[in-house]
Specification:
Number of helices: 5
Strand content: 5-15%
Strand order of the largest sheet: 1-2
Number of domains: 1
Helix content: 40-55%
Protein name: Pyrimidine dimer DNA glycosylase /DNA-(Apurinic or apyrimidinic site) lyase
Distance between the termini: 19 Å
Low-confidence stretches: none
Largest sheet: 2 strands, parallel
Organism: Propionibacterium cyclohexanicum
Pfam family, one: Pyr_excise
Oligomer: single chain
InterPro entries: Pyr-dimer_DNA_glycosylase
């Protein structure tokens, strides 16, 4: 699950993020016992309404899918985010860490997407629409933080 705007993800990344986010939703809704220890769940579990926050995240992915002509089934989103969902935060360092990780993945599997993404400077990189950038270090739940 990326803090980066889904416009930067290649097809595999966008569809994988959609699937992983649906699984996270199932965990938060108590519909599955697996995946509960995944560190990415911390960011959603910390929200006042975790399922609503995750619904907003999924909606952002579905919007990007629509833009690309994919059909990401919005009926699979459990909660309908109200018109004004509070934003989650992501630190600039976390966003830059993820950008580096995504660049490496794109170079391997989607050179065209990698080239487009490589041209961005660090202040041009946008977060997923459900996040707002704040200053700070890489998230403590991130594997590289330990």
């Amino acid at each position: 699950m990326w803090s980066l705007h889904p416009q930067y993800l290649d097809r595999q990344g966008l569809l994988g993020c959609w699937r992983e986010s649906l699984l996270a939703q199932a965990v938060l809704a108590g519909r599955t016992k697996g995946y509960r220890a995944h560190p990415q769940l911390q960011r959603f579990s910390a929200q006042a309404e975790p399922l609503v926050a995750l619904a907003a995240y999924l909606a952002g992915l579905a919007d990007e899918g629509d833009r690309r002509g994919y059909h990401l089934d919005r009926t699979r989103i459990i909660e309908s985010p109200p018109g004004s969902v509070g934003f989650m935060t992501v630190t600039r360092e976390q966003l830059l860490f993820e950008a580096g990780h995504l660049r490496a993945k794109l170079i391997e599997r989607s050179p065209g997407a990698a080239a487009a993404f490589a041209g961005l400077d660090e202040h041009q990189i946008e977060p997923h629409p459900s996040f707002r950038i704040v200053e700070g270090p890489i998230a403590p739940w991130e594997r590289a933080a330990g």
